[in-house]
Amino acid sequence: MYRALAVAALTLCAATAVSAQGNWPSKPISIVVPFGAGGNTDVMARLTATHLTKALGVSVVVDNKPGAAGLIASKQVLAAPADGYMFLMATATQIVTAPFINANFNFDGVKDFAPVVNVGANSFVLTTRATLPVKNLAELTAYAKRENGKLTYGSGGQGTLTHLSAYMFTKRAEVEMVHVPYKGGSAAVTDMIGGQIDLYSASPSEVIPQMNSGKLRMIAVSSPTRLKELPNVPTIAETYPGYEVSTWNGLVARAGTPPEVLDRVANEVAKMKDDPALIKKLEDMGVVPMFVTRAAFGEQIQREVAMWGKTLKNSGIHSD
Predict the structure, then answer these.
(1) Inter-CA distances, 68 with 34, 74, 232, Å
(2) Whole-prediction pTM
């Protein structure tokens, strides 16, 4: 009798799970953003949420949870049920780099998260406040050496790619600077314009709107070739060959989320590439639209974990 009851209970649970998946989505979906509003990741999340709201027929809302280089947002998603109602608009920081340098990132970005879709990739723009007396990379390097550790550079948080891209520049240029972490890029840009910090290695979308304001100066980009949107800004690699740093913004979910749900979201987001106005908006932000398959996104993450692991284990960068 007890065996029959147990079998019946398991059958009921399985049927309930299948039914729940079949009815997905039946309530609002949230996309958690690991940075504050207004930054590159936030803008891409909002574009994605708007598209998915129309495609899925339910509200898809953006939930900004900045702080600790994305740890707060990451743990919120990992603590939620793996039912397809909460996603993380992750960057390479949360999934790839931060777990190597911050013991609080006590999860495995490859095993604990399921890749869904890579929305877009971008390089960084090494930018200074307009009042800093430098106009190019050579002058910045010479000035930093004269100041001998007095210059400050901001980032979106310890261990973020905005941090690591600037850090790797200081190592290549053999200069010392003081790192000032923020809870997101928009706050760093605001303080740079206000003169509280000297430099910031920004996502293009964070500084392109200010390019004609006279409030900041774009020194060099971290991509191997010049950006189409900034053809007059040289690459760091033109001075330091081989230098290249980029990141991506993509949706991931808690591992164990039904694959049918992940496939549905990935397929719907991929349709964004068929919207010329949306693609132009991304490109104007300095973002390269990606929309690769789930499998390809997962393989990319594994390659980057292997690459950054070698770099960061020997970097001396640590965060509590």
Answers:
(1) 9, 10, 35
(2) 0.81
Q: Tell me the pLDDT tens digit for each residue of 198-219.
A: 999 999 989 998 888 899 999 9
Which of the four pLDDT bands, split at 50, 70 and 90, describes residue 6? very low
Radius of gyration of the chain (CA): 21
Residue 132 CB coordination number (10 Å): 20
Which residues 6+ apart lie within 8 Å of 214 measured at CB? 130
Largest Cα–Cα distance of the chain, in whole Å? 84
C-alpha 64/C-alpha 244 separation (Å) is: 29
Q: Determine how β-strand 152-155 pairs with β-strand 199-202.
A: parallel
| pLDDT recorded at residue 204 | 92
Instruction: Convert 133-166 to b/e letters by CB count within 10 Å (16 or more is b).
Output: ebeebeebbebbeeeeeebbbbbbbbbbbbbbbb
Over residues 133-169, the pLDDT tens digits come to 999 999 999 999 999 999 999 998 888 899 999 999 9
| Tokens representing residue 139 in the block | 């002058």
CB-CB contact of 188 with 200 (8 Å): yes
45 contacts 77 by C-beta, under 8 angstroms: no
